[in-house]
Structure formats: C-alpha cells, structure tokens
Design a protein that fits this description.
The protein has 83 residues and is mainly α. It has two helices and no strands. The protein has one domain. It is elongated, with a radius of gyration of 18 Å.
Amino acid sequence: MNFLIIFSRNLDEFFEIRVASLIQKISLMSQATGPEGLPLVEVLKQISKNAHEAVEEQYKILNYTLLPQLQGYGVHLALLQIG
C-alpha cells in the first residue's frame, strides 16, 4: 500500500513540475525537440501513454490484489461522502 501511495505522490509531482514545464516549452517553442531529438509534442504523448498504463496497473494492483487481501484480514474501506 505504501508503494502505491508513494507512486501516486511522485506521479502527481512529476506532472505538476516536469510536465507543466514541458507544456510551457511547447507553447513557447512548438517545434522544439527533446534530448533524444523527438519533438516535444511527441515526448508529451509518450509521457501520457506511459502514465495512463502505469495508473491502470496501479488500480489493478489496488482493486484485485491489495483490497481483497485487506478484506481477508477484516479491513474494509469506507467511502467518505462530502457535501
């Protein structure tokens, strides 16, 4: 569970800092390229693809492995409704 929490925080920080910077560079210099010579737009597309795949895997681990194991120990998560 700790790993998934750390993963989520790191991914959030990556998007807040690195991806935001990349988007800003794209808006200023639309033809700019990354370190490997790829256009920054393509770098952004690859980041998006990889992030979606990683988050999908994270949810699979949470929903199909961790939560069932926790329920086996009598631990149940409750939904919090605000408003």
